[in-house]
Design goal:
The chain is an alpha+beta fold. Strands 5-4-8-2-1-11-14-13 form an 8-stranded mixed β-sheet. Strands 29-32-33-38-35-36 form a 6-stranded antiparallel β-sheet. A 5-stranded mixed β-sheet has the order 16-17-18-20-19, with helices on one face.
């Protein structure tokens, strides 16, 4: 038997034992005492006291994990015991099986902290020691075991007490609230307590030469302390970073319900990128002070509802943590800055999800079943955010947010699966969400809804408008069912009138009677449903210029006969409907919708980036017409294809 198979069998044996222990061990509290940090040797000495219950010796011995440290001694209820430190696990016997009994395990250990090979762990760098509680490559990815002996799973929550002995000139911060700072043997002893239970991966400390920004936030529950710790000298930059904290915090409380924790806390670290939502002690990169990371700051704050208060039960359920927190970035911009700023952020989420997910994660995946290496991937974060947006659209704002508040209250300080969220949302809202979960959570890829055809007929009392919406598929096999697609119809005064079409299958037909002549019809111009496209609306005046590098265009309004004229642009991440020429067209295309009878001149430059393998531009007014090759030649200097006056219809690069 070769080494690979031996390692595989040992791994399976360890995994079975670990999972048994996971289901039968309940930690009540951890007291982590950091007695020394040696910044020159990059080592730590500590003692952790664990109070726990174990419910069945038949299910396996109680088992805790600790990576890399040397164990000096262990005590069980004050009696010294022998303990096995094998495969990063601490294994020991209990003298009796008594489910009601509380045990106390004390572990004294020292050594060099461990970091994950990809992201997270415990770090001692120059004059700062800190942790990021997730190991993205680790299995499981919860990573408390990188710095203290822990029952390291998403589902076990405990109270935490921290004691940190630090040298003069250093400041220590941890989860919860500061209980005391007292001199101790030529050091200073900091004590913190977090009264609300958290999983091990949300526990954190930071020890460094910090300044602090302190203020009071106005909360539903009364005044709440806010503290941000950062390297000395960074205060002006930190103040700028947290300028909108009150506005963002208030927006989240209004949407999700009261913030239940005792403090809002952040600590700046030299970590190379990302941030970590440790409860009341968010770790973020100091680089935010220089480059800005507004979305990150409020992403991590929102985890105090989605992730910290209600936690995903397994890494397969990570959408409940990271997809929802990523959508909260959008909600922050929407509630603090307004719809236009929020749409800009939604565009970033969509373009990253649609362009980068198959590159970064290897595929478009279903959100309910990621592989381990996709747990913290682009699909879970970015597609996950878009799918929360779709749920909001399906349910409507009032029902969506009231159900969220009830869900967060019902499952507070518990772990939840995607199936539990689905069941609760259906029961609480009294809505059937089977189609939603089937369309967006359980399937890979995306549908793409296109306005395929419209026909307007004059009637005695108005007009009859017939609309056909077709559905294309991107990296999926099944058509979406019962998807509400808003359709906007413009009248003679260019006022918008909204109708919703419930789309299922390859083609959906809809007829509506109108008291006016329709001048323009657009499908979902405000991205109510996030599918394999993204739409923009610009209100253009004479002389206006607009450039969007995400969709590779520049617009110039040379002449607009009105005060302003709306133009709607949709960028599709699928090839246009064309069975005859599908192999000769680029796999993405533009659709422009413009009121064409107002004597305007709007030119467009298509930026032909390297991924456009075809160098000819084609146009058609609607999907039922043949493609027309446009004769303008691209300029080789800047690789731009210029169209002197844009028309309503579809544009695509190809070679036919």
């Amino acid at each position: 038997m070769n080494i690979f198979f031996i390692q595989l069998i040992l791994s399976l044996i360890f995994s079975t034992s670990y999972n048994n222990a996971v289901n039968h061990t309940d930690v009540i509290s951890y007291h982590i005492h950091i007695s020394n940090i040696d910044f020159e040797q990059k080592t730590m000495a500590a003692h952790t006291s664990i109070v726990f219950r174990h419910y069945s010796t038949q299910a396996g011995k109680p088992e805790f994990s600790l990576i890399g440290y040397q164990i000096d001694s262990c005590f069980l209820d004050g009696e010294r015991i022998r303990i096995q430190h094998r495969n990063d696990s601490l294994i020991f016997d209990l003298p009796e099986n008594n489910a009601a009994k509380k045990w106390q395990l004390d572990v004294f250990y020292q050594g060099s902290p461990v970091s994950d090979k990809y992201w997270g762990g415990f770090f001692i760098e120059n004059d700062i020691a800190y942790n990021y509680g997730v190991g993205m490559a680790a299995e499981p990815p919860v990573f408390g075991r990188a710095w203290f002996p822990s029952h390291d799973v998403f589902t076990d929550r405990a109270a935490f007490y921290f004691t940190m002995d630090v040298s003069q000139g250093f400041v220590a911060v941890a989860n919860g609230t500061l209980q005391s700072v007292l001199p101790k043997n030529q050091k200073m002893c900091y004590k913190y307590t977090i009264k609300d239970s958290i999983p091990c991966y949300l526990a954190s400390i930071a020890i460094g030469k910090f300044d602090v920004l302190q203020k009071q936030l106005i909360s539903i529950r009364g005044n709440l302390p806010f503290e941000a710790f950062f390297p000395q000298g960074d205060k002006p930059l930190a103040e700028k970073t947290f300028t909108n904290m009150q506005a963002g915090f208030s927006a989240y409380e209004k949407l999700f319900g009261p913030y239940v924790w005792d403090r809002v806390g952040y600590v700046a670290t030299p970590f190379h990128g990302g941030a970590m939502e440790h409860a009341t002690n968010i770790a973020y990169s100091r680089a935010c002070h220089v480059y800005g990371c507004e979305s990150t700051i409020y992403h991590e704050l929102s985890h105090h509802w989605f992730g910290n208060l209600v936690t995903c039960a397994t890494e397969k359920d990570m959408w409940l943590n990271e997809g929802w927190a990523s959508y909260c970035e959008y909600l922050y911009f929407e509630k603090v800055f307004g719809a236009e700023r929020a749409q800009q952020h939604l565009a970033k989420l969509a373009h990253t999800a649609l362009k980068m997910a198959p590159v970064n994660d290897g595929a478009y995946i279903a959100l309910n079943n990621p592989n381990h290496d996709q747990t913290y991937g682009t699909n879970i974060y970015k597609k996950g955010a878009l799918m929360v947006h779709n749920l909001r659209s399906v349910m409507g704002d009032s029902l969506f947010f009231s159900t969220i508040q009830a869900y967060l209250s019902h499952f507070a300080f518990k772990s939840v699966t995607i199936e539990q969220l689905k069941q609760y949302f259906q029961e609480k809202s009294e809505q059937n969400l089977e189609n939603y979960f089937s369309n967006w959570i359980y399937q890979t890829g995306y549908p793409n809804f296109l306005l395929h055809n419209t026909v307007s007929l004059k009637q005695k009392t108005g007009y009859q408008l017939s609309i056909q919406i077709s559905q294309q598929l991107l990296a999926r096999e099944n058509y979406a069912q019962s998807v509400p697609i808003p359709v906007i119809i413009l009248d003679e005064k260019l006022q918008e009138h909204s109708h919703t079409i419930i789309c299922s299958g390859k083609n959906t037909h809809f007829t509506v009677n109108l008291p006016f002549e329709p001048k323009l019809v657009i499908a979902d111009p405000y991205n109510s449903i996030c599918d394999a496209q993204f739409s923009y609306k610009r209100q253009l005046r004479t002389g206006d210029f607009w450039q969007n590098d995400d969709i590779y265009i520049k617009l110039f309004a040379h002449k607009v006969s009105r005060d302003s004229l709306p133009i709607y642009i949709t960028y599709h991440f699928t090839a246009p409907n064309d069975s005859l020429n599908q192999n000769k067209l680029y796999t993405e295309f533009w659709r422009f919708s413009i009121p064409d009878d107002f004597n305007q001149q709007i030119s467009v430059q298509f930026l032909m980036v390297p991924q456009f393998k075809y160098r000819k531009l084609y146009y058609r007014a609607n999907p039922n017409e043949k493609w027309l090759k446009l004769q303008n030649e691209c300029t080789t200097k800047d690789m731009e294809f210029k169209v002197g006056n844009i028309r309503s219809g579809e544009y695509v690069f190809g070679d036919m």
